Target: Acyl-coenzyme A thioesterase THEM4
Amino acid sequence: MSGYIQEDIDPEELAHRTELASAIAGSVRDLIDATVRTEVGETDIAEARRLIAAATEILRKDQLPGPFGIRFNADGTKRSWGNAVLGRRNPIAPPVDIRHETEHSWLEVDLGPQYEGPAGLVHGGVLALVFDQLLGSTAEFQGVPGMTGTLTVRYRRGTPLGPIRGEARVDRVEGVKTFVTGTISVDGEVTAESEGIFILPRWARGEVPEAMRKSVGEG
Ligand SMILES: CCCCC/C=C\C/C=C\C/C=C\C/C=C\CCCC(=O)SCCNC(=O)CCNC(=O)[C@H](O)C(C)(C)COP(=O)(O)OP(=O)(O)OC[C@H]1O[C@@H](n2cnc3c(N)ncnc32)[C@H](O)[C@@H]1OP(=O)(O)O
Model:
């Protein structure tokens, strides 16, 4: 399976690289927020663009040939730094930290102005994105991972931009299909609910190592 990469990086070196990844992604997130909300004029825009182009050129000095993929390290940790929801080095990702308890998984994240849909509210597609990852990761953590086959979302009321909480649990497992349900709430009030059917694809059946089943998309 291309894109799933096995590595052996010294844990101390890995911690250092993780710090750097979070730092650069954090800076670019700040830039995104500043861009969405800027009111400066033409001269400042031109100057900012010049500086951004210079920064881009520095980052382009050494690039991966393609996407980051999912990397498993010899120490048992894994990295999906390009993931659109969790990715440590992806400024598009909020990024979300998903916590796993015995029976359920949850997350808390602050969704800023770059995730706006209706005025002042989180874009529905962004909520679906968060659900997809939260429900998929929940299935993985329970040892019954899969690709998203079907994801349904019921938007009960608008979700204001700002802090949200997501929760999910595995409802049932039927053969290769894992049914997961979840909610997103704000100040204790549910604004959206979701059900996902995660299917262990044909190519993975019977050959997914136990250790990988709980860790395909985290990190
Ligand atoms: C180291 C390797 C580890 C491999 C681990 C394996 C899986 C985990 C993979 C990824 C997880 C990774 C990371 C993150 C986790 C979550 C967040 C992100 C999730 C995503 O962002 S993921 C991208 C979007 N997602 C896709 O890109 C899927 C494209 N699609 C396909 O890859 C196939 O389409 C697939 C696999 C869905 C099915 O294909 P298939 O050939 O394996 O299925 P098959 O025909 O055998 O059906 C078996 C039973 O599922 C029923 N069934 C079939 N399709 C259904 C559907 N769509 N909805 C509801 N039920 C369905 C049948 O009716 C039958 O049901 P029954 O058994 O009752 O008859």
About this structure: The mean pLDDT is 94. The CA atoms of residues 24 and 89 lie 7 Å apart.
